[in-house]
Amino acid sequence: MTDTGAAFDPAERDRAAEAAAGPAFDFSVCMTEPIHRLGGIQSYGALLAVADDGRVEVASSTTTRLLGRTPEELIGTPVADLLGEDGVAAVRQTLDAPTGDRGLLALRVPEDGPEFDVTVYRADGRLVLELEPATTHRPFRFSQFYPSVRTALTRLQHGRTVVDVCAAAVAEIRAITGYDRVVAYRFEGRAGPGEVIAEAIADGLEPWVGLWFPATDIPPQARRLYERNWIRVINDVDDATSALHPQALPGSSEPLDLSDSTLRTVSSFHLEYLRNIGVGSSMSVSLLHEGALWGLIACHGMAPRRLDPEVRAACEFFGVTLSLQLAALQEAETARARQETRTALSELVSTLETDPARSLPGSGGLLAELVRSDAVVLRLDGVASTMAGEVEPAALTALWPALPDLTAGAVWASECLTEHAPALAPHADDLSGVLVLALGDGDLVAWTRRERRADRTWAADPAQPVQLGPHGERLTPRGSSAVYRAVVRGHSLPWTAADEAVAADLGRAMTTITLRQAAHLAGLNTQLRRANQDLDTFAHAAAHEMKEPLRGIAATVAFIGEDAGETLDATTLRRLETVESLANRMDELVNSLLHFAQLGQADLRREPVSLHTATTRALEIAGARLAENDVRPTLPDAGVTVDADPARLEEILVNLLVNAAKYARAGNPRTVEVGLRPADTDRAPAVFVRDNGIGIPEVHQQDVLRLFRRLHARDAYGGGHGAGLAIVDRIVQRHGGRLWLDSVPGEGTTVWFTLEADPGPQS
Fold this sequence. Notes:
The protein is of the alpha+beta class.
């Protein structure tokens, strides 16, 4: 936002006259004008568009003067009639060259006619030829032109700052082209205003260095064309546009796309802009960084001026080289800044643990050293904490909704948050800029900056760049004779490429640590799976091998009792009975161990299973125990299904129903219920078996899931080996699910289990 002060220039009366002429012009027309489809070219050249069949489809009105044939005569005729077969072959060969999409060649048109410089390219599926009459400076000799270009490029390389390089560039381009004014603009952001940072001008012209020009001077569609084409030339601002015939392409309502045209006519708004500042001809050379428009070299002649294609090509080459040099300077500056923060970054990374995001809260000082800022904020699990400096909590509350969705490691920066979120305007003093490093899942680090108010000198009132004047549509005067003072509000100190780079470095370091830890855990899990498989195999083999000796011991004891029972004393007989009982108990334990090991090796055969049917079959086995203890079962509704191995699901239910019978309460009613909690957006479906028995103290709820772990005496509550719940848990895990308990002593136990991954809470 800007606070515009009073104008102090001596041309106040001129501006007052402009303002008195009428209301402000609707500038939205200019901002949306399709400047690449204006249906005309500059009149010093001619244009032909040729269809795939080789016939002319579009011709400019200048063909009558330059080629001796009217557009009506040319349309529908083979272009070979004009260029000759050799000329057509030369055009095709030019487009087939490695450059591919554009070419320049010299041709006589017609074959025995004058020589033209011909630019060829493709547009709207057609071959386009732009013909410019050759100048007297023929032929062009690269060896004569190269020394001046080489000298100019050498001077560029000596510049140590962006301003130095641009100052050398504008001086050299003015020497090459002869324009009266050559200036270098640097844009503030991709769609922001431009500042003149260097210029070379003829004697008598007012200086522009330090002036700012509104962003509306170059509307978005013009910026896109500048990014697409390195150079644009206007030979004469008062030129009468040469219309294309027909105005609309065959089968379309649109004129030919002239985005890549050298001769493309120019918007009347821009021509009025140039006339208003006394310009008769112009050239613009794009300065790009990573494909985006960084700035412009703008050349102004006070009179019409035509540049040869070779000179234009040299200027284009110069623009490419200058862009590379500017990028190299910026990269060098970024590298220096990153080197300065390397120590802090290394120290910070060394403090990060296996969970980097959780390690950051204690590193506020190091985070502040990485990026110059007024405050550093860490947000974890939706809770923000200021780790260095100060920022109002209300400003942060307004900030979070304004941030875009960012993936882990992504960096986002803004130096004018009010442009993204007007709700932040009341907090601009405290929070105008932010640099964000996303940590994933909504977690982030944010470096914040306060507002930095800055005076700017504008070449026009940025709040009203266009007015109607006594001479028709007039842009507000530009130049040092008509400047405005404005205080820039709502902006922080800009974030540099180095700031963003060091934040990205931290993000990569944290990602690397996380991935390394994940890989380590994956390796441990693989080893654990192998160890469990080996343990299952060993347990199965050991249990199988132990069964025969145990049976032999039990059988031997029985034989001794039968054969010598009458001769043995009572103590010996009692000891033999104990040995037989222990052998039988050991055999039962081995059977449980063998079954437990088999569960880890057997394949599952999953299919949709009716929970009602599975419970009914389980009751065929467990029903007698329930009846003995007067426990009444409640079955799930018919039609409820789960995805499971039928046999394993029945085994789960048998164990849980038997437990409900064993650990029933002392008095009636005694109940057990089997049911299903449906799935929702956050939870998988869960089966439950709920009884109103004696319950399990919370401290022991994990113990009961261990193999052979009993909470009561061996013979209490019907005895058992303590393997039932461990087997149930093992089966659930084999299904990819989980098991948990809800239990209150004296009130009962609910055993919950899923048969697939469940991200929901364990309750």
